[in-house]
Amino acid sequence: TTAQIGVTGLAVMGRNLARNFARNGYTVAVHNRTASRTRALVEEFGNEGDFIATETAKEFVAALERPRRLVIMVKAGDPTDAVIQEFAPLLEPGDMIIDGGNAHFADTRRRERELREQGIHFVGTGISGGEEGALNGPSIMPGGSKESYDSLGPMLEKISAKAADGAPCVTHVGPDGAGHFVKMVHNGIEYADMQLIGEAYQLLRDVAGYAPARIAEIFRTWNTGRLDSYLIEITAEVLSHVDAATGEPFVDVVADQAEQKGTGRWTVQIALDLGVPVSGIAEAVFARSLSGHVALREASRGLAGPKASPLGEAEAAAFADRVEQALYASKIVSYTQGFHEVAAGSEEYGWDIDLGAVSAIWRGGCIIRAAFLDRIRAAYDARADLPSLLSDETFAREIADAQDDWREVLVAATRQGVPTPGFAAALAYYDALRAERLPAALTQGQRDFFGAHTYRRTDRDGAFHTLWGGDRSEVTA
Ligand code: NBP
Q1: Which positions fall inside the 6-phosphogluconate dehydrogenase C-terminal domain (predicted)?
Q2: What is the tens place of the pLDDT at every residue in 5-40?
Q3: What is the mean pLDDT of the chain?
Q4: Burial letters for 328-366: b for 16+ Cβ neighbours within 10 Å, e otherwise?
Q5: What span, in angstroms and rounded, lies between the C-alpha atoms of 427 and 410?
């Protein structure tokens, strides 16, 4: 027998993905650098479906039907290149290498180009949902050629998560690195979502004066409304968890230094290169970074802050409702920024990404899955060339309804000294976009003053320069 698909790299992700294929009726060839992992997989889960355990690269490739579909699930970076170099010489034109790791899209573009010369389809594929998703249905973001998707699509659709309406959470995102790019932005949005939730929690704790268990209840309630999402759901779980060793709320015994693996940082780095303002995502990345500066935080603990003035019971309840508004409005802004980055990447690299389809495949399986994504899809379905999510009537109206509360929450946060960089960045972005005039005009004046960088005028075409050091007359540049 031959396998319809092969998976090499059998750590948590690869093992679960292989099992997912097998459980869906595919014969799966499995391989890992260290063969004991391959044997362990087949011993433990061999009863779930048809696996072909292989030890050498040659055996692995020989076990695959043609054109071959070979999934790589190894550590991103050099290990991925090493594995490609090991397998590519054994493959033939028309074969497909699917990289399901968290590769940087620029690496994916390079690998795709190199392998294309050999006639091999390289399919950089974003996979979200962690180990649970890999086993039971992830959100899958494949890039690569259209031809490869014709062959792979049906299999990916089978193993993917399904949205509430039954649609598989996978689509051909676009050529070469498009899939990994979209996965990167997904993770950036995930960082922003988590930061905003963290700020909402801190406000409910420090301004409303609520204990974690009570805040968990509030998140549970929110999860039945428009904020309904996986991250809100697990937030309630984490907040209601009590540490067995101390009897304290779990959230109070965990060290408050957030770690990161780098995809959020990439989202911001690439946004800077593309000139896309993803301020909410950037604040989320910086907030994690700040939390890790233990010595700096220690040295700053004595700095002056405002006097604490917790709210009374009735005020606190009203404040909690406001926080929901602020969280929702800020979330709309993060997604606006994230989708702007996807649109900019698509434009820069000629990917022609369907933004509505991207929001649709994030509805299930992935970490940011949420009812909200249906709304985003509806917005892009109604108008594919939407300049921004904020230009969608429904979102604009919702923010209009939320804005008073949003501002009040930031007033309270500022007054009480609770850091809310995510909420604040989102509101600043919103206010900047709707502003009639921005101080950018003054910036241009300063630039022209010190560097003769020239400026454009509101009333006439052309580039101008003022002779600042002379008689201050204006000349055409
Ligand atoms: P790891 O990222 O921990 O990678 C371990 C695997 O890489 C093992 O199979 C290991 O083989 C193999 N490997 C390494 Br390391 N260097 C190799 C080399 N030079 N040649 C061949 N194989 C090599 O595994 P993971 O957590 O399952 O993640 C796999 C990929 O999926 C990563 O790119 C990750 O970023 C991505 N991802 C992870 C998640 C998640 O929730 N964990 C979610 C989405 C995507 P060995 O057994 O012989 O050491």
Answers
A1: 179-469
A2: 999 999 999 999 999 999 999 999 999 999 999 999
A3: 97
A4: bbbbbbbbbbbbbbbbbbbeebebebbbbbbbbbbbbbb
A5: 9
- State the Cα–Cα distance between residues 334 and 425, nearest whole angstrom: 9
φ and ψ of 194, to 5 deg: -65, -40
Give the CA dihedral 35, 41, 42, 43, nearest 10 degrees.
100
Summarize the confidence of residues 332-361 as an average pLDDT. Answer: 98
- 413 touches ligand 1 (CB under 6 Å): no
72 Cα–ligand 1 center, Å = 9
190 is catalytic: yes
**CB of 83 shorter than 6 A to ligand 1:** yes
Closest C-alpha to 271, from 172, 337, 176, 205: 337
Ligand 1 pocket residue status of 134, Cβ below 6 Å: no
Percent of the chain scored above 90 by pLDDT? Answer: 97
- Other CB atoms within 10 A of residue 411 CB: 10
Q: Ligand 1 centroid to 342 CA: how many Å?
A: 26
Whole-angstrom distance, CA of residue 68 vs CA of residue 127: 20
Flag whether the pTM goes above 0.90: yes
Q: Give CA–CA dist 210/189, Å, rounded.
A: 27
Among residues 44, 157, 190, 298, which one is catalytic?
190
Confidence category of residue 309, pLDDT binned at 50, 70, 90: confident
pLDDT(71) > 90 = yes
314 has pLDDT over 90: yes
Long-range pairs for 244-253: beta carbons < 8 A, 24 or more residues apart: 249/211, 249/212, 249/213, 250/212, 251/212, 252/212
Which whole number is the average pLDDT over 117-122? 97
- List helix spans (H) across 292-312: 294-300
This model of the complex carries an ipTM of 0.97
Task: Check pocket membership of 127 for ligand 1, CB cut-off 6 A.
Answer: yes
Average pLDDT over residues 139-165: 97
Can you tell me which atom of ligand 1 is nearest the CA of 100? Answer: 31
Close Cβ partners of 378 (under 8 Å, ≥ 6 residues apart): 394
d(CA 282, CA 436) in angstroms, rounded, equals 25
Is 112 a known active-site residue? no
Rounded to an integer, what distance in angstroms lies between the CA atom of residue 82 and that of residue 473? 63
